[in-house]
Specification:
single chain, alpha+beta, three-stranded antiparallel sheet, two-stranded antiparallel ribbon, 3 helices, 28% helix, SCO5918 family protein, SCO5918-like
């Protein structure tokens, strides 16, 4: 399928993206994520690998649209919540 990313056309298939990301270690997700082969990657990491461009050259929106059109599931990263630290007296809420 033809996708335009950072004003450059790419002919991509779902299988090619899966092969490109196999063996890659997913980076921590802070924005938009995509599930590839049961692992969750930041879309910007995937874009950098499959386009061989700098992440500054494209947006997460461009990558989300392209990956969704290829049949991948994209989603927003789960918000991180700070872990509650239990107090020495056993009261986690500090009351």
């Amino acid at each position: 399928m033809r996708c335009v990313i950072a004003r450059f056309p790419f002919d991509l298939t779902k299988n090619e993206v899966e092969q490109s990301m196999s063996g890659k270690e997913p980076e921590p997700v802070t924005g938009v994520a995509v599930t590839i082969g049961g692992r969750v990657f930041p879309v910007m990491q995937v874009g950098e690998v499959i386009t061989r461009q700098s992440r500054r050259d494209f947006t997460s929106g461009e990558m989300r649209r392209a990956l969704t059109r290829l049949g991948f599931t994209c989603h927003d990263a789960a918000p991180s919540t700070p872990a509650e630290t239990p107090r020495p007296d056993g009261d986690a809420l500090g009351w």
